[in-house]
Amino acid sequence: IILVFWLFMIRPQAKKAKEQKKYIENMQKGDKVVTIAGIHGVINKVNEDGTISLEVSPGSYLKIEKSTISTEMSAALNKAVVETK
Prior knowledge:
The protein is elongated. The protein has helices at residues 2-25, 71-84, and strands at 32-34, 40-46, 51-57, 60-65. The protein is of the alpha+beta class. The protein has a 4-stranded antiparallel sheet with strand order 1-2-3-4. It is built from 2 helices and 4 strands, in the order αββββα. Strand 1 (32-34) and strand 2 (40-46) form a beta hairpin.
């Protein structure tokens, strides 16, 4: 029972967390992202203190934590942009 629990619950969650961490570490200026709260924007600057400057509209910037970026929603946004081209 413990093995089944590990295979179906713990392992996928650990894999997802690892992918999220890798995505956050590789963010750079110009990436289109979506926050967990649903705010869409383009990364303007990646700061050393674990924050980013997110341009939500021309000339409007928000300083947010890197950890608030949603990997799934950002990937879906970028996939939709690629498909429309």
